[in-house]
Design a protein that fits this description.
globular; 4 helices; 12-stranded antiparallel beta sheet; 50% strand; two-stranded antiparallel ribbon
Length: 299
């Protein structure tokens, strides 16, 4: 299960106050998404994950890893339904990937000519991302109900599958269209909680993500929202084995919601995660992970 996917699943998070210096205060704001046929919006996604894995008596599979991604993409509204939902295309324009492992470092930049890929092991995973267009169905509340077109990444291994696999796409890009506020009207000081689950009992564990959104201020049709949340595991039935124990799981961040445009203007969230294998498991291991994800809408 992708760490980026699970963190982004519940976070419509943001960074930076983008209001003008002559901002006009507002009492309330409408946080629902808006779609205009033919509109195009470009974003930059940056994600940095640092993790340490320790497997008892297996140093060859233990160690530190850092994975950094920078992804440029464009969102195009193709159709708008009478109910207020939309058919949206999301096209990946470029990608940069950097991986630091205990014994080596790898880099890939799609801006470089394909002829320079050579034997770079990241190239066959990341090159297919560029130019790929996904079709998203988004309902009136901003929820992505389906994401198709990413099957070509199924064989790209873990570094790229999250950009094509349907559930990963829904989780990762969901914050662009939805902040979880229902009803959508909010005032400064309001709080609301977004909860979502990943995994299942049959998969060996269900992870619950509970995030509180607090609307701190409203200026010039922009809402500045603070996030604070936690990651928990659902208790397993007695007849099901526990495969992982969460010892620490926190989420925090901020986002700016543009009410005039009806979408995310900017966001950043930071997640810290630590866990271990249950004591009854034969192979003992522990994992610590720290990740920051940022979305920035381009002019």
């Amino acid at each position: 299960m992708s760490f980026m996917r699970t963190c982004a699943a519940v976070v419509a998070a943001g960074v930076l106050s983008l209001g003008a210096s002559t901002a006009v205060a507002q009492e309330t704001i409408d946080l629902k998404p808006k779609f205009e046929k033919g509109s195009e919006t470009r974003y930059t996604l940056e994600a940095v994950r640092k993790s340490t894995t320790d497997v008892v008596d297996q140093p060859e599979v233990s160690g530190f890893q850092e994975d950094s991604k920078v992804l440029e993409f464009v969102v195009r509204v193709k159709e708008v339904t009478e109910e207020g939902g939309a058919t949206v295309e999301l096209e990946y324009l470029s990608v940069r990937e950097s991986v630091k492992l205990p014994m080596e470092s790898l880099e890939f930049d799609s801006a470089k000519p394909k002829e320079e890929d050579g034997d770079n092991p990241l190239a066959p995973m990341m090159r297919p991302v560029v130019g790929l267009t996904l079709t998203l169905q988004v309902d009136a509340a901003g929820k992505i109900t389906s994401a198709t077109g990413g099957d070509v990444l199924a064989s790209a291994l873990t570094y790229a599958t999250e950009f094509g696999e349907q559930n990963s796409v829904k989780s990762l890009f969901g914050p662009l269209f939805s902040n979880g506020k229902n009803p959508a009207t909010a005032a400064a000081g309001d709080t609301w909680t977004v909860a979502q689950s990943e995994g299942s009992v049959d998969e060996g564990g269900q992870f619950n993500f509970i995030v509180e959104h607090t609307l701190e201020s409203i200026k010039d049709d922009r809402a500045e929202v603070k996030l604070k949340g936690r990651i928990e595991t659902e208790p397993m039935p007695e007849d099901k084995p526990v495969r992982f124990v969460v010892e620490l799981g926190t989420i925090e961040g901020r986002y700016t919601w543009d009410a005039k445009a009806g979408g995310l203007a900017a966001m950043v969230f930071h997640a810290t995660f630590a866990g271990r294998s249950p004591e009854t498991q034969k192979v003992q291991f522990s994992v610590k992970s720290d990740q920051t994800v940022t979305f920035t809408r381009k002019p």
